Amino acid sequence: METSPVGAASAVAQASAGFTRIDIAELLRRYKPTLARWLPKGIVSALGKLVHIELINDFLEEHFEDEPTEFLKSAAAWMDIELAMLHAERLRDSLCQRPIVVANHPLGGPESVLLMHEIAKTRPDLRMVSQELLLKLKPLAPLLAPIPRQNGRAYSGALMEAFQSERPLLLFPAGYCSRPLSFGAVYDFAWQKMFVKVARKHGRPIVPIHISGMNSNKFYRLSALRRGLGIKASLESLCLVDEMVAQRGGSLTMTIGTPIAPEMLDQAIADQEWADRIRQYVYGLGRDSALGFDPGLPATLPLR
User: d(Cα 36, Cα 19) in Å, to the nearest integer?
Assistant: First the structure.
């Protein structure tokens, strides 16, 4: 799940006495003090509206003490997204086999919650590999296996335990929601190869899933402009909450592919090439739900 301002905002949403409503100005003072000193109040107010802070506050306050599966159920209901699952039996039948579930990341948030919710109906002990910051979202924290920050050792034990456990794992290997590639079409950028290493080392099958859906053209234009200007910080992520709200009442289709046995991952082929081939297969599923995985088919889908 890509971290949005609400992910960061949840860092100030926890207090010893319970939930504390998120305050954008306080958030800026805590995490961006230099920026906070000169940023006009009008801009701060506009930022709060952009991230729908009152709507998010109301939901989090109501569900802050929920158990993880109840929180997922409530979040899925709040999103009001009609979900179609094609070949759902492939996912359901694999959940007793310690699978690694991998998927493309078209929206940057809603699909993560919906897929976690679907898996948790059968396996409430699942773990989603996520950014460390999302641990601040208290109801979801027990279901997360955080990736430690660069050069950090915190939470590395929890991540390794999740890899070795009997629990299903869910991850979005792009680590970043889909953007237009160099030729203009919207795809995930290159997938990180970690899931291939874990599958082979710990004997876990990989369950690939294609998820439909797109963010707005405004989001993609902002992303293209930001990259064209050479700005590394993902400024368009500020719009992810607005994009999530815009998805409410819509629909998504998740197409589950054929599970990939760890024995299929021949070490003669580089792990990154396997990740690229599985990414390519996932997008093939979006065009043909009956498509099987061909391990001998080289990856040709552009990565950037």
Answer: 23
User: What mean pLDDT do residues 118-124 have?
Assistant: 98
Bridge partners, 127 (sequence order): 169
Domains annotated for the chain, with CATH where assigned, are 67-287 (3.40.1130.10)
Residue 293's CB: how many other CB atoms inside 10 A?
20
Contact present, 195 and 100 (Cβ < 8 Å): yes
Residues β-bridged to residue 83:
252
Q: What's the pLDDT band for 4 if we cut at 50, 70, 90?
A: low
**pTM of the complete model:** 0.89
Cα distance between residue 220 and residue 217, in whole Å? 5
Tokens of 251: 């629909």
**155 to each of 66, 137, 195, 244, how far by Cα in Å?**
23, 16, 18, 28
What pLDDT sits at residue 2? 67
Q: What own/partner pairs with CB < 8 Å and gap ≥ 24 does 243-246 have?
A: 243/107, 243/108, 243/109, 243/215, 243/216, 243/219, 244/4, 244/79, 244/107, 244/108, 244/109, 244/110, 245/52, 245/55, 246/216
Which tokens sit at 224? 């293209």
Give mean pLDDT, residues 130-141. 84
- Three-class SS state of 63: helix
